[in-house]
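Example record

The entry below shows one chain as it appears in the dataset: sequence first, then structure tokens.
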Amino acid sequence: MAIERKITVVIAENELSEREKLKNLLAGEADIQVVGEARDGKECLDLVARQRPSIVLIKEALPVINGLDAAEQITNEQPEVGVILILSGAEGEEVWHKMLRAGIREFLTRPLAADRLLQEVRKVADLQGKAARKGAAAAPAAAAPEEPRRKIVAVAGPRGGCGKTVLATNLAVAAAANSEKVALVDLNLWGGDISMLLDLTPRRTLGDLLPGFGGIDYDVVEAMIVKHSSGVSVLAAPLTGTFDGAALSRYMVQSILEALRQHYECTIVDTGYANLESTLAAMDYADTILVVVGMDLPRLRDAKLYLKNLMAANYPREKLLVVVNRCGSSKEIAPAEIESILEFPVAAQLPNDEGLVNSSVNLGQPLILSSPNKPLARAIAALAEKIVPAPAGQKKRAGKGWFSF
């Protein structure tokens, strides 16, 4: 009969009363054993190095060495140890951002409920065990070449009505021809249109995150994804427009994108209003930002100011790609004049085809599929190839070629 190994736990908490509470919550569980207690971050690091526990429960605000810094060190140096950070619930955005950068995904917020604590400890221990077994099984194999960084592309604009949702949707479908796995995220949280543009009826949306939110991992994200026939995985916005989009925090957005980055070669994000925290979080986390600009003078003026503000906010110039939409719709402004007006290079120009766009939207069919030989579809396909090029020597997936004659 196989003997089940216990889940060994180290508790790092500087307040005696809180340490005792944690021990009492774990006491009596046959599969869990507390093997050590630490009063500060340094003691925690020393204890974890000696004991090699399954799990360390570590308070974020510890003396000597901050709990978050200690957690990051454990994650980097002893990845076989599962780290669960204990938060007060009053942490600022800086803490969430640092957790994300450090690769710390598991956390609990006080007051701690026994069932939630036990569930989290067992879940993390199980995940760590699976990772260890997978690593051991793969050990004899030759080291695989390092994979290229998977891309996050945010599609943004200084104001609504610039066509970014149509572009984001068709860009994702086009990118799916060059990549096995593409995700499309609708961050227009007051009633996004991507589901309508793809004729999808999602069972779950981003609005379902908040009521039971306790931590975001890929299992949570995957449960909300709906698949389009093109192969694109869609994370939809609420359909009703009644969702409070401001409630989707920076940490939540970046956790979603990090989960998608782990499983998709390319993730396209259709951002919401320019000044929303969720929009800024997506833009901060993205590798590339497409700034969609209209052809009329007021939109060009807004875009010029928007680009200057992005540069002033320390967005790298090379991260920003300007896409001019509806080129040719203005007789007064020649496409060649746009760069001088914006004082910024233009990466792509999309020809005006209002009839095609309206038909595509009304039918729920991406124009890149319904009319692949139209100039607008060709321009979007070329932009997709620029952003997500097919690997050298690899042809587009069967049945996914755009241009047929």
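Notes for this example: The chain has a mean pLDDT of 84. The chain has two domains: 7-132, 151-387.
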